[in-house]
Amino acid sequence: MVLRGDKYVGDFIFLEKKSMKAIVCILMGLGLSVSVLYGQKSHKTSVFLMGENEKNYESIKESYRHSLLEVCEADMKKAFENWINLVTSLEDYAKQEGVDINGVKLWLHTFFSEEGKIDHIGFLLKPASKNVNIKELKVLLKEFGKNYTFPIQYDHKFYHYTGVTFPTFSQPSNRK
Fold first, then answer.
1. Which of 5, 10, 58, 109 is at 20 to 30 A from 176, Cα to Cα?
2. Crossing angle of the two packed helices 76-97 and 134-147, in degrees rounded to 10
3. Whether 121 contacts 141, CB under 8 Å
């Protein structure tokens, strides 16, 4: 307890400057360790409107040389089933988030890591699509991409480019 004259000022812990520096360094180190640990768990997905930054888009395409069909060993049914699983999962996620994507028609160019995580999603609304808030759609795709893992893993990065329409009437065979 510290008294100044007759007044109570408070309880203080007095530390030397060296001790304070050590404590600050330890706290900063712990904070960095925690951020690195969490950084390894989260996956970042970039989402872009095709046509906005063509140089970046071309650069991404050069890094992903294998198509989903190639990854599925030219098995159209396997590729389709896995793609429809992604699309219906996206549709379910939109409903869960309260975003109405019914009537949205777009081109999707999706780029996957070797582990099946979504690295990038390029999209372009089709002329017949309902009007949609582009920023809201970008957020939806980005958040979905961070959390979704494609059920197929491959030795190389891969991509899939196709048109998508919501609602999805085709369902994966394992879905009821």
1. 109
2. 120
3. yes
User: If DSSP states are collapsed to H, E and C, what string results for 14-31?
Assistant: CCCHHHHHHHHHHHHHHH
Least Cα distance to 46 among 142, 168, 161, 125 occurs for 142
Do 116 and 162 meet the contact criterion of CB atoms below 8 Å apart? Answer: no
Going by the DSSP 8-state scheme, the letter that residue 160 receives in this structure is: E
Distance (Å, whole) CA 113 – CA 55? 20
pTM: 0.73
Per-domain residue ranges for the chain? 2-39, 43-165
pLDDT band at 93 (very low <50, low <70, confident <90, very high): very high
Q: What is the DSSP secondary structure assignment for residue 65, as one 8-state letter?
A: -
